[in-house]
Amino acid sequence: MHMLHSREMKKGFTMIELLVVVSIMGILSAMGVASLHGAVVNNRVKDAAINVSAYLERVANETNRLSEKVCVKASGKRIQATKGACGSTTGALVSKYEFEGNENLSFDNSNGGGDCSKSWVNGATFEPKFGLSAAPVEGCIVVKYGSGEKRARALKKKNKNNIIPQISYDSGANWMGL
Length: 178
Hints:
Blueprint: H1 2-9, H2 15-66, E1 70-75, E2 78-83, E3 93-98, E4 105-108, E5 124-126, E6 139-145, E7 151-156, E8 163-168, E9 176-177
Antiparallel strand pairs: 1-2, 1-5, 2-3, 4-6, 6-7, 7-8, 8-9
């Protein structure tokens, strides 16, 4: 009878059972947060590749509209286009783009890999061309995320008329198109 009575009084969980459940929930939450952080970083790098490529396409279109040379340079978190060829006196500002709200993204002066012949970070002259992109024949701009291995780039190939957004997860050794 005593055994039956003790089962009726037990209504709930022991402290050990609660601690085990809370511990398991904590471990699963930590794993989820790490995965979420990786996904956020990957999306920021992809967005940077797409946004910089779109900005450069816009500058190419604006160059053709203005029928003037335009110099594109990047530094830190900002890329800007000014009237005139690179190396000449600084002209009027045409447009600018900046990574706002993300302290980890910045432009990288690296050449961007084997299929990128020239980095445009220190200057690239966009020249008006009827029916074609005003962007230089080939080159790229690389964006890095913090001090890690994730990179984004906007690549212009010699045989293409558009600027291609790409990402790399291994410091630029291999690039994937978006």
